[in-house]
Sequence to fold (549 residues):
Amino acid sequence: MNNRLRVRIDKVFKVVFRIAGFACIAILVSIFMMLLYNTVAFFSQIKPLDFITDTQWNPSRHFGLLPLLASTLLVTLGAMAIAIPLGIGTALFISEYATGFVKNMLKPAVEMLSAIPSVVIGFLGIVVISPGISNLFGLSNGLNALNGAILLAIMALPTIITVAEDAIHAVPMTVKEASYGLGATKWATVKNIVLPAAYPGIIAAIMLGMGRAIGETMTVLMATGNSLAFPTGFFSSIRTITATIAIEMGEVPFQTTHYYGLFALALILFLITMAVNVLAERMVNRIRKFQ
Amino acid sequence: MVQAALVKTKPVIEISDLNLYFGEKQVLKNIQLTIPQKMVTAMIGPSGCGKSTLLRTLNRLHDLSPDARITGKVTIDGQDIFHKNTLVNKLRKKVGMVFQKPNPFPKSIYDNVAYGLQINGFPKDKIPQMVEESLRKSYIFDEVKDKLQEPATRLSGGQQQRLCIARTIAVKPEIILMDEPCSALDPLSTLKIEELILELKNDYTIVIVTHNMQQAARVSDFTAFMYLGELIEFDETHKIFNNPEKQLTENYIKGHFG
Fold:
């Protein structure tokens, strides 16, 4: 092969890889532009102030973000209230307490949990958890925010456990030995040495789990009752931003106010998940610096 | 004979018929050893001979490795350390340890020393004074007194190691185990640690594992030579280095292998 050909091939591949790299950025930017363009169209018809203050989402006249945002935040916070203690507890158990067979079983089990399709989790919510909730609390309908929160917690768990376990595992053995060497018990070591050292990673784990919960659509669509009333608590049937977009996008007439409104919702969702992910990424970088 | 030399001392650690296995592999073979009180006992031998493993047996650090299996008996002050009534955290408070690589906690200089006092339930109002005392005893107080709240990881390696010694003596142990405490340090820091060891032996029993034979000769009163998991010879340091009984010891001391 002569040298000119080799140089030419070299240049071709440089261009190919550059195109691949820029394609990614281009996709991200065009999605953002699409959302932004349609959102601007929406705000030319509905005042932004009405969008963020109206307490009703009723697409013939009312385009209020609040009930949907409140629903999303309610299930997400509920899910985190369940998933954070459970997830960090499991991560600590895997990394600090479990040995042998249990440890070897638990890690793949957690990974398999993340392989369950969200439709199946939604199914679990309809068939098992929601009847359970309605029996336990004497409600006529178990398809509510609590049901959604439990399901989202299940879905966020694998992310939280895996990332938190990595962070806990990264605390050097020598530092733990130093603590035991001073007469510290396991719990004293976990509380005073392991958790503070793994703290940025644990925050990252929570953020990533939260990002997952906020963006999840199918499960909440199936299991939270899809009521447009403003939520009053965990026993309210709710409808999240994601479920609203999924339900209404299929039937909305093209380029109507309602159509543009769904894009505005999508933009809000995009901004929330992006903020959560950026924060998580920052935290992950802080652990890297620590090591 | 070592017996003659030991007569003048008081035994504090007595090891008998000690065997240790990691899985199938036997790492310590039938160790018999008596370590005298308020003396420095050095353990020397080539890499992999089991000297660090033996040291870590004495504060039961092997409890942390699930595949370690131990037979035999170790008593400290006459108390069987493997007995089911022995509280491992009390044992480790009594038998402090300084590690090969300086391993300060990711906390402030002050908290590094205060931590051991807090977890062992020393009275809160005494802690600041005890921290200062330990830092002084470890000859590091003057270097850190103006930056006690700074992260310990900003100190130099030698300072970190002296901080680790301060943290160990803060909880008032009787025995200090040192696992090659100078192997990661420069000669000047090494010298400071050695001076500290000679000072500390007035109050503590010290067992030090070292790769550096000059160091063993400089700081220790007794020396144990180990080879392939066995204790080959144990005697007064000057005898081990000048007039060992076993050929193997002599070969090692003279640098024929290792």
Q: What stands out?
A: Chain A has a mean pLDDT of 93. Chain A is about 80% helix and 0% strand. Residues 1-44 of chain A form one domain. Chain A has two domains: 1-44, 48-290.
